Inverse folding.
């Protein structure tokens, strides 16, 4: 219900909130009767600003969650495609098992670099774009070094077998972390930042 305060024949209606001074409609008194002027009663300026800010905040949160979902989906699709390619090249025999085991790690690492890591959580799309371009190059160099080291320890049928026998914890595992793992995360992160940038422009 609307409440009114009477002063010299003028009634000020309060209908949007209980804050003092937030008056939203006007009327005139005639005896004990109150006649409202034909003016649409709307929320006061302060309440409109508060409501708009709340909706804007909710919209930003919703779009941030959507960007995270799309980024994780991109990481999942990219890693699945690589697992299928490795299976076709006979590098692995059970690609989907490898993918399902690796996927939780990829998702956790992605969320960590997006929201927890102080070094990367504020990165823009251009930085993730550079990471997406250079991580395969650095990974290829690291892989070549692993092949040379592993190949010197014996004869293997494939480069992958030779690289996996490099014999250092910072050899082949580090190569895998750089590429493809780092490339997957950079790819999903770049797509996520693009979506966030588009969402910010639309707000």
């Amino acid at each position: 219900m609307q409440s009114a305060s009477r002063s010299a024949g003028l009634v000020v209606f309060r209908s949007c909130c209980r804050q003092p001074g937030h008056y939203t409609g006007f009327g005139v008194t005639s005896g004990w009767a109150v006649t409202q002027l034909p003016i649409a009663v709307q929320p006061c300026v302060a309440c409109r600003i508060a409501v708009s800010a709340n909706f804007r905040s909710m919209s930003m949160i919703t779009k941030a969650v959507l960007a995270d979902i799309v980024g994780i989906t991109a990481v999942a699709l990219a890693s699945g495609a690589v697992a299928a390619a490795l299976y076709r090249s006979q590098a692995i025999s059970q690609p989907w098992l490898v993918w399902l085991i690796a996927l939780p790690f990829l998702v956790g690492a992605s969320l960590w670099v997006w929201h927890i890591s102080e070094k990367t959580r504020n990165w823009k799309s251009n930085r993730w774009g550079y990471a997406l371009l250079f991580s395969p190059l650095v990974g290829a160099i690291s892989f070549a070094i692993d092949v040379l080291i592993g190949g010197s320890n014996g004869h293997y049928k494939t480069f992958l077998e030779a690289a996996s026998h490099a014999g250092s914890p910072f050899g082949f595992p580090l190569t895998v972390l750089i590429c493809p793992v780092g490339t997957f995360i950079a790819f999903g992160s770049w797509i996520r930042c693009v979506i966030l940038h588009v969402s910010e422009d639309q707000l």
Residues 54-202 form one domain. The helical segments are 45-88, 95-115, 125-151, 159-164, 172-202.
